[in-house]
Structure formats: C-alpha cells, structure tokens
Design brief:
By secondary structure, this protein is mainly α. It has nine helices and no strands. It starts with a helix and ends with a helix.
Length: 287
C-alpha cells in the first residue's frame, strides 16, 4: 500500500475512534452501566465479524490459516490478545466520555498512544520492524504529554483525575493492540481474521466483566437507548480492520499520529456542538 494512502486510512481510524467514543459514552450514560454498554459494543461488533467471516471466502480462508497456525505453533497465544487492549479502551470510553467529553478523552489517548508507539517501533514489536527514534518522533511524544497537562489546567475537577489517567493507559494499549493485530494479520494474511480474533477475545473479557458488575450492583434499569448509540461495535470493526491492514505500511507510530489528526479534529468538533458536562473549556482542549 502506498504510504500516503496508509496515512489517509490512519486519519480515518482516528475519526471513527472519536465517533465510537461518543456512541459508547452516550450509551453508557443512557443505560447507566458502562460495563454492560462496553459488552454490547464489542458483542455487536463480533456478530458482524462472524457473519462476514462465514459469508466471504477470504474470511473462511483466513480462519483456516488461523487454526493451522495455532496447531503448528506459528501463531502464539499472545498474538490473539489484542482484543484485551481493545476491551480496556471501550470500557474507558463508556466510563469517561459522557462526563469529560471526547476532546479530553482524546488528549489522554493521544499521549499514551504516541509514547508507546514510539517505544514499540524502537524495539521492533510492530510488523514494520525496528523504526529508529528521530528528533521529530521524540518531540511529538513530549508534546502529547504536555497537552495532557494543558487540558488538566483547563478546569478538569481534581476528583476526576482518574478519568484522564484511564485514557492515557487506553492509548498505550491501543498502540500495542495495533502492533499485535498487525503481526497477526501478517501470519493469517487477512485483516478480517485479525479483526475477528480481536473482537472475540475482547467480547469474552467484557461479557465476564459485565456479568460480575451486574451481580455486584444489579442490572441496569433499561438497555433502551437511541439507535445511533449502538453503532460503537460497527465503528470498531471498521477502524480495527483498517489498523490491522495499514500498520505494516505505516509503522505503529505513524499509524498513531495519523489517527491523532482524525481523533483531534473530530473530537473537538463533537465537543463544540455537543459538550459533555465536565469537559474542560473548548479553548483549552483546542490549545
């Protein structure tokens, strides 16, 4: 894939991530249960992927290669665990976005994703191999961290500090998830199969978490919400598929930085027309 096309796809990944964050955060607020909302989001994505895999010849072929790779040991277990980071990211969306807004969530994700993307490229974890540290990459990571401090200074309540820490950790997990899914995509020669494995693992984790949470605090009073709030799973299918497809071309850091462009522009636009109750002033987020 030509690099400019890969960068454009990375930007689209960021746009879809921001839209998914708003959908999942709004669903969580509507049904007052972030764990159930996250399970619904991932579970719906898994249903879509299973249908596509069984319908498309390329999907069935990729699934056969995945099974053969597991039997031969060519595909280790850790390559199937990208969905765990995805599950954590969706949980973070459902717990934070409805309160602090998409823009602040995005700033935290950008910081974690940029710094960890730099590290993963340097050690050669991604499918692109070892990517040297350059001054531009290092400055980009530092600026992302500074942006977190700027947004905190913009008026986020001190008791909500964990709503910023979680997106930073989620961003670091997303970088690892993109690299892991890219490695799996190489082994099975199918972005669709890599995405299916991602959603399968994430759904199992989130369903277990939702069951435990419901057992502890009770079931949500309702799971009825506006239809668009249930689109998080479908949006996740598209952007994880794109990530697995292009990371071999772009590397982990460039994929992350490209998605940052889409994330920031879309999240600022969303918060400008539809601010969350505890979001910082939009001027601080833009700054």
């Amino acid at each position: 894939m030509p690099l400019p096309l890969g960068v454009a796809a990375a930007v689209l990944v960021g746009v879809l991530t921001a839209l998914q964050a708003r959908a999942n955060g709004s669903l969580s607020a509507a049904i007052t249960d972030g764990f159930v909302a996250a399970a619904i989001s991932f579970g719906s994505g898994l249903v879509i992927l299973v249908a596509l895999t069984l319908t498309l010849p390329a999907g069935r072929a990729g699934l056969r290669r995945l099974r053969a790779g597991r039997r031969s040991g060519d595909i280790p277990v850790w390559m199937l665990l990208g969905g765990l980071a995805g599950a954590f990211s969706v949980i973070t969306q459902t717990l934070t976005v409805a309160t602090v807004g998409v823009a602040l969530f995005t700033v935290g994700v950008v910081a974690g994703q940029t710094v960890n993307g730099l590290v993963l490229d340097r050690v050669g974890f991604g499918p692109a191999g070892i990517v040297p540290v350059t001054a531009q990459r290092l400055v980009g990571g530092v600026l992302a961290i500074v942006a977190v401090g700027v947004c905190v200074a913009g008026g986020v309540a001190s008791e909500l500090w964990w709503m910023l820490v979680l997106p930073v950790l989620a961003g670091a997990g997303i970088a690892w998830q993109q690299a892991t899914n890219g490695r799996l995509r190489q082994r099975v020669d199918s972005p669709l199969t890599a995405t299916l494995a991602n959603f399968a693992g994430g759904t199992v984790v989130l369903v277990i978490a939702a069951v435990i949470h419901v057992a502890a605090v009770g079931a949500p009073a309702t799971i009825v919400a506006d239809g668009w709030m249930y689109l998080g799973g479908a949006l996740g299918v598209v952007y994880i598929f794109l990530s697995a497809a292009v990371v071999r071309t772009t590397g982990v850091l460039i994929l992350g930085l490209g998605s940052v462009v889409g994330l920031l522009t879309t999240s600022v636009a969303l918060d400008a027309v539809w601010p969350a109750p505890s979001a910082p002033a939009l001027g601080w987020a833009v700054g």
